[in-house]
Amino acid sequence: MKIIGSRAFFGCENAKTIILPDTLEQIEEEAFGGCSSLELIDLPPKVSHISKGAFADCTRLKRVSLPEGLKTIEPRCFFNCKALEEINLPGELLGIGKSAFEGCESLRTFIGPQKQSILDGRAFAGCRNLEEISLGDDLREIAADSFIDCMKIKKVSCSDKITPAACELFRRQVSLADGRGFIIINNSIIGYIGKESDLTLPEGVKQIYDGAFAENLYLSRVTIPEGVSAIGVAAFGACPILTSVVFPQSLNLLGSFSFAYCPCLKEVNIPGGVTGIKQGTFEGCAALEKVTLNEGLLIIGPAAFRFCARLKTPAFPDSLDIVASDSFEGCPLVVLPDIFGDEEEGFLF
Questions:
Q1: pLDDT tens digit string along 325-341?
Q2: What is d(CA 55, CA 77) in angstroms, rounded to the nearest whole number?
Q3: In terms of Cα–Cα distance, which of 267, 237, 240 is closest to 254?
Q4: Which of 195, 274, 297, 338 would bridge 218 by S-S if both were Cys, CB 3.0 to 4.6 A apart?
Q5: 152, 176, 200 — which closes off a domain?
């Protein structure tokens, strides 16, 4: 036997154990759906395809061993397997389909295969006891609702480069926050749900990801500790009462729009390790009066200080090579240096 057909054992409510032949290669849609007494199943090594809903609503299924040759887990494959505690995923698995493990309320750990590249919509939705997630290095596509209604997630680990999708997914995951409200993955702050006004970021942090503190209504003063090397796109964008930020000397990257439209920010001292001020970094900071630019700065990018109406002319360092023509647009008090870049060549920001 090579194939088990569609709905072949559907609704066999009394079947507790099923032994499958080693010759089996394919399981069709809903083949074992609704086998509500099934507790354990080992899939033979030749199985390379399991169709949609193959084990959906097997509400007593506790453990599944999947063959190494399996490349994808189809949508709803283990939907509503409420007793499922353990799933061993093959190392060559590339994708997990929509709602594949939705409603698996007993599942506590998800260890993603290293080669997995896709985690589809609602893949683990409603896994209410899921606590630990490990994402593979090749994961590039994560649906925003992959882990929706997973209320107990306490730990997420992934590759050193956290994808924007992963950031967006876990940024508001309250259960991941530490005692002060920081959401930190791999020594990177990806979100903050606290309400401190005078905030010193924790030691050991290496970078601040895109949008981590954006639109925070409580931040007034921020101190960023030594060791932080990068601040992402719009990381502190549109913080309405932010007046002060202290940068570390370790900083070498300020992302585009990282402090854009912080209307109360008055003064910044940009460390010498920052070689370029990217597009719109301080755009719309209407109260900004003083900027200290240190030796080592090479480029001031497009709209970097646009509409900073109170900004006075900074001391431009000798190292400065390029200033975008609109970098100080709407800054009537600034006298520009005679250094302009060719905008047609573009700024790599």
A1: 999 999 999 998 877 65
A2: 6
A3: 237
A4: 195
A5: 176
d(CA 308, CA 266): 10
Question: How far, in Å, are 68, 101, 150, 212, 255 from residue 106 at the CA level?
Answer: 24, 11, 11, 31, 41
Question: What CATH number is associated with residue 215?
Answer: 3.80.10.10
* Nearest in space to 290 (alpha carbons), one of 243, 329, 226, 337: 243
Give the residue-averaged pLDDT of 282-297.
Answer: 98
The residue range of the domain holding 186 is: 180-349
pLDDT in tens, 198-235: 999 999 999 999 999 999 999 999 999 999 999 999 99
Same domain flag for 256 and 332: yes
Which of 20-24, 134-138, 220-224, 285-289 is predicted with the least confidence, judged by mean pLDDT? 134-138
Cβ-contact 45, 69 below 8 angstroms: yes
Cβ contact 317:296 at 8 Å: yes
Total structural domains in the chain? 2
The verdict on 208 and 300 lying in the same domain is: yes
- Tokens representing residue 50 in the block: 């399991």
Sole residue written with tokens 């990806």: 190
